[in-house]
Amino acid sequence: MAKKIGRGIAAVWYPTGMSGGGDPSQAIIKMQPDGSVDVIIGSVDIGEGARTVMRQIAAEELGVSIEKVNVTLVDTDTSPLDTGTFASRVTHQTGNAVIQAAREARQVLFEVAAGQLGVQPDQLIVKDDMVVVRDFPEQAIPIADVASHATWVERRLIAGRGAFGWPPAAIDPETGAGEPLHNMAYGATIAEVEVDTETGVVRVLKLVSAYDCGKAINPLLVEGQIDGGAAGGLGSALLEELHPYYPTLDHYPTGFFSYMVPTAKDVPALDAVVVEMGSLTGPYGAKGIGEMTANSQAPAIINAIYDAIGVWITDLPATPEKILRALEAKEAA
């Protein structure tokens, strides 16, 4: 029995948002009389941390502590429109919509506070739950006091609306040229594997993945996305077989007892590297960091297998049977 070690690398580029454009997000922000903030969006959080990121963005723009921000998802009838949680789009599209809504609400806040402080609205900033006169920071008033005054004295609603999304890409009918992709991000994975030439079993020893997220609004969530993507990419490389006898449907998996996915036992040592190359359009320079994190592991693992035993596997997943058949073909050649 021989166990051989190999290393491989693969790179990927990936757009933010739906290819071809036409995927808007909307947001509404309103401030309660006590200075707390409601962020109303249609984006669904499926574990990637969208609610947390939207809370951070709203808190940053309105100068309130994050504990005072509540993100609300109601239903598709009453929530602002959102195209969907896919295409690595929520942080970018919905984040921009939340920024717009927060800035509109902040302008109302400044108009009310300006009358209380005897200054012009453009002289004000928000910081640490206070509205502050920019050039005279000793002149300040709690945001909660401004919100209360707006509600009960001036009878004003401190609220804002936001909407963001690229229009559908126009295609030149003569040349076919257009701009279907936006806000490109980049990534790479290095894989180290051990291949058993007697059994064909491949064991991934380590995955190092580096991804450009533009700006890590929440670095811990970004690292979680990268690690989760690494596990998913490992599954597509070695385990997940949809059609074992393609193009027929013979013996296709009908449940998790026959469709293999990686578990904690299968996941190797992971190293997530966050790269920040700010975008021109994303909130604070952020890009999408969802789908692409699962895309570079499989080719890196396949390259590592070749480095270890000198055979190419061109049909995923790289099962032990395929490894052994490739080795037999190599010996027979």
Question: What would you say this structure looks like, in words?
Answer:
The strands form 3 sheets. The protein has a 4-stranded mixed beta sheet. α1 links the parallel β3 and β4 (69-72). It has 6 helices and 11 strands. The protein folds into 2 domains: 3-15 and 183-332, Aldehyde oxidase/xanthine dehydrogenase, molybdopterin binding domain (Aldehyde Oxidoreductase, domain 4, 2-Layer Sandwich), CATH 3.30.365; 25-164, 2-Layer Sandwich (Aldehyde Oxidoreductase, domain 4). By secondary structure, it is of the alpha+beta class. The relative contact order is 0.19.
Give the topology.
Elements (H helix, E strand, L loop, with lengths): L2 E12 L10 E7 L5 E5 L8 H13 L6 E4 L17 H28 L6 E4 L2 E4 L2 E7 H10 L6 E6 L20 E12 L5 E11 L6 H20 L30 E7 L21 H13 L10 H13 L1
Parallel strand pairs: 3-4, 10-11
Antiparallel strand pairs: 1-9, 2-3, 2-8, 5-6, 6-7, 9-10
Helix pairs in contact: 1-2, 2-3, 4-5
Provide a brief overview of the structure.
By secondary structure, the chain is α+β, with helices and mostly antiparallel strands.
